[in-house]
Structures are given as structure tokens and as C-alpha cells.
Design a protein that fits this description.
The chain is of the alpha/beta class and 344 residues long. It is built from 11 helices and 8 strands. The chain is globular, with a radius of gyration of 21 Å. It binds the ligand C=CC1=C(C)c2cc3[nH]c(cc4nc(cc5[nH]c(cc1n2)c(C)c5CCC(=O)O)C(CCC(=O)O)=C4C)c(C)c3C=C and fe (ii) ion (2 copies). It is an enzyme of class 4 (lyase). It catalyses: Fe-coproporphyrin III + 2 H(+) = coproporphyrin III + Fe(2+); heme b + 2 H(+) = protoporphyrin IX + Fe(2+).
């Protein structure tokens, strides 16, 4: 007997006993920094029609012919600058695994398994669900690690889960974690992380710039609630930290391609601050649950050098929640709330 239509699947531990499993899902990242590793990752990512909505007949020739011949070299160099050389892996992978391992400790006494998977690349969502089922979990909480909802992130992660479930004869019950843009536990974790990062400075920064991953305006116009979610996060964080719109502005980074994306764009916004007399700033990137190429390289290297070249004096990069106690407290709070009725 097999619980899968697909061949080669291992036999599961007994299901049907109500065992709960938790799957942390993040974006994905290349396996190495070489041209072909980065190309493989970008090809899978940028072929997702949730991410690039243009017709594949138009987009695929551009992607395969232009983007994937140029971009892997540039992105590979950026990944090399931020690579976790101790483990020979991308920071996004290190932190996602760490979050999963730490969360697993919080649930071990309750016989609840915690695993992690990636929307693109390895370990895949399918592998992670398979792991939980093999351990006998028939109730799965799927947690896309995106505080703000976007079809390009949350929905495509959920799609990937359900695509796998479509192949199963015997499916587990599943719940998916909603976005948590202004959940008090999330805002508390952000505020505490910011306070810790700023506590060692000789003087407080003049401004804390918030920077979220951008999104094409067109997607928002079609109904993606991402911008509103980012605004809710920033409003709640300002309140928690006693700050205003002026000293905690909202910006969007990581624009890709020629279309108009959400504004203001982080890089020119920050490069324009020194001429207004703002020379010591901190940057917080609340949309990223883990440090990655976008936070460590785009902001930590590229935007920092533009700011310094424009006359800026100090840019403090506030780390993402990563493997901090605050991060794990947040994940535990969210998970416990979602598994109510499944586990005590
Ligand atoms: C049209 C292109 C892209 C959309 C839309 C998009 C949305 C989006 N992405 C994240 C989170 C992350 N993106 C990351 C990297 C990354 N993003 C794009 C493009 C789009 N993202 C590219 C091409 C890349 C690869 C890096 C590069 O070549 O510049 C990452 C980091 C991955 C890592 O390995 O470190 C994250 C995280 C969100 C939250 C989002 C929509 C809101
Ligand atoms: Fe992205
Ligand atoms: Fe980027």
C-alpha cells in the first residue's frame, strides 16, 4: 500500500492518530554561488507565474535568452559577498533551518514535529511534507514566513503545498498560517530587536528607515493587499517605538525589471537623506524574517555605500529576526494559536 500515486515514496508511520506537524516555508535560495547554481534557482523562481505574470510565450524567451545569461553572474557575486562560509550555504538557508530547529525544541515535549522547506530549490515543500507524513503526522500547519501577504510569496507557497497534496491518495489535514502584518507578537519582536541593535550606539539615529521588498504597482492595482499590509506593520511599529511618519518612513527595495514598483524606492530615498542633514540612520527590514541577499547585500553593502558616498556618516543595519529568542517566541505564539483544537 502506498499513500502516494507517485512511485518511490517510503512507507509512512501510522497516520490517523492526530499527530501534528509544523512546516516552516520560506522562499528558497541557491545551493551555491556559481553561475549554474544561481541560474537554476533564478530560472525556477522567475518562471513562477505568480511572480512574473506576463504571458510565458512572451516572458520565457526574455528570461531564458537575456535574464538568465546576465543576472546569475551579478547575483552570484552578491551571494558570494554574504555567503555563510562556515556552513557553505546561503544565510537564508542557515536562518530558516535555525528557526525550525529552535521551534522544534519548544514543541518536542508535545510530540509535535517541526520541519522546514523552500518554495524554490531545496529542501522542497514536497520533501518537507513527505518527512512529516513519514513521521505519522496527519495534521499539518503550513507556515509561509511572510508577515505581509502577497500573491507572489504567500499564495505561491500555498500553491506549492496543494500541488503536492494533489498527488496524494491519503491527504493530511492542513491549515495555512495567514499573514501576520500587525500581530502584537510580531511587532513586539521587531521593536525589541531594533532596541537591542540601537542600544550599543553612542547616539540614537536621526531616523529609522523601514525597507520592505517591493512589488510591481500593477499587482497591487489588481488587488494584492501587500502595500496595505506593509503600512499596517509600520503604523504598529511606530506606535510601539514612539516614532512618527517623519522619523520612521516606509520605503520599498529590490525593484526588478523596468516596470513601476511600489514607491518610494529605498536606495534613492536613503541616498537623498544626507543633503537634508540626516547623516546617521538605521534601516529595519520587517518583511524579511531572515537575513538574505536583499538585506545583507542590497541594503548592507549597496545602499550603505551610496549613503556614505552622498555624505552619510553612519548606517546601522538592524538584523532580521533570524534565530533570536524573539523570533522563536513569535513563531511559537503563531503556531500555538493556529493549532488550537488539534493539540492542547
Ligand atoms: C518580479 C520579480 C520579483 C518579485 C515580484 C518578488 C517579490 C518578493 N520577493 C520577496 C522576498 C525575497 N526575494 C528575494 C530575492 C529575489 N527576488 C527577486 C525578484 C522578485 N521578488 C529576485 C530576482 C531575487 C534573487 C536575488 C537577485 O538576483 O537579486 C529574497 C532573498 C533570496 C536569497 O537567496 O537570499 C527574498 C527573501 C518578497 C517578500 C516579495 C514580495 C513581497
Ligand atoms: Fe524577491
Ligand atoms: Fe536585490
Amino acid at each position: 500500500m502506498s499513500f502516494l500515486h507517485i512511485s518511490g515514496a517510503s512507507e509512512p508511520a501510522p497516520m490517523g492518530q492526530g499527530r501534528v506537524g509544523i512546516l516552516l516555508a520560506n522562499l528558497g535560495t541557491p545551493d551555491d554561488t556559481g553561475f549554474s547554481g544561481v541560474r537554476r534557482y533564478l530560472s525556477e523562481f522567475l518562471s513562477d507565474q505568480r511572480v512574473i505574470e506576463a504571458s510565458p510565450a512572451v516572458w520565457q524567451p526574455i528570461l531564458q535568452g537575456v535574464v538568465l545569461t546576465v543576472r546569475p553572474r551579478k547575483s552570484g557575486a552578491a551571494y558570494r559577498r554574504i555567503w555563510n562560509t562556515d556552513r557553505n550555504e546561503s544565510p537564508l538557508r542557515t536562518w530558516t533551518r535555525e528557526q525550525s530547529d529552535q521551534l522544534a525544541k519548544r514543541f518536542s515535549a508535545e510530540n509535535i514535529s517541526v520541519v522546514w522547506g523552500m518554495r524554490y530549490g531545496k529542501p522542497s515543500v514536497a520533501q518537507a511534507v513527505g518527512e512529516l507524513m513519514t513521521a505519522g503526522c496527519d495534521r499539518i500547519l503550513f507556515m509561509p514566513l511572510y508577515p505581509q501577504y502577497s500573491a507572489t510569496t504567500t499564495a505561491t507557497a500555498n500553491d506549492q503545498l496543494f500541488r503536492f497534496l494533489m498527488k496524494l491518495r491519503r491527504q493530511p489535514a492542513v491549515r495555512t498560517l495567514p499573514a501576520f502584518a500587525d500581530h502584537p507578537a510580531y511587532i513586539r519582536a521587531l521593536a525589541e530587536t531594533a532596541r537591542q541593535a540601537l542600544s550599543s550606539l553612542s547616539a540614537p539615529p536621526q531616523m529609522i528607515v523601514t525597507s520592505f521588498h517591493g512589488l510591481p504597482n500593477e499587482y497591487v492595482a489588481k488587488g494584492d493587499p501587500y502595500r496595505q499590509d506593509c503600512e499596517r506593520t509600520v503604523a504598529a511599529l511606530r506606535t510601539a517605538m514612539g516614532m512618527t511618519e517623519q522619523d520612521m518612513p516606509l520605503t520599498f527595495q529590490s525593484r526588478f525589471g523596468p516596470a513601476k514598483w511600489l514607491e518610494p524606492y529605498t536606495a534613492p530615498f536613503i541616498a537623498g537623506l544626507p543633503e537634508k542633514g540626516v547623516k546617521r540612520i538605521a534601516v529595519i527590514m520587517p518583511g524579511f524574517m531572515a537575513d538574505c541577499i536583499e538585506t545583507l547585500d542590497e541594503i548592507g553593502n549597496e545602499v550603505r555605500s551610496e549613503f556614505l558616498a552622498a555624505g552619510g556618516e553612519e548606517l546601522t543595519l538592524i538584523p532580521c529576526l533570524n534565530g533570536s529568542r524573539e523570533a522563536i517566541d513569535l513563531l511559537e505564539t503563531l503556531a500555538r494559536s493556529e493549532i488550537q483544537g488539534w493539540a492542547a
